[in-house]
Amino acid sequence: MNVDFSPTESEVLIDVVKHRLGEMREQVYHADAHKFKDELKQRKGVLEGVLDKLSAAATKHPATLH
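Above: the chain's sequence. Below: its structure in token form.
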């Protein structure tokens, strides 16, 4: 799947993912139930991968993310 974003859209999307990751770190820290904590950690890992891809694409192609 290819998705094209403007530089502004890319910047906003990266900021949103970073913000959500910060929130998830707090949720993981405060979670009591191991199953819930594990699910949060898994989702956090997925978001970290997404952020890596977005950041790499924005660096290579400032106007287009693939």
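The longest helix spans residues 34-60.
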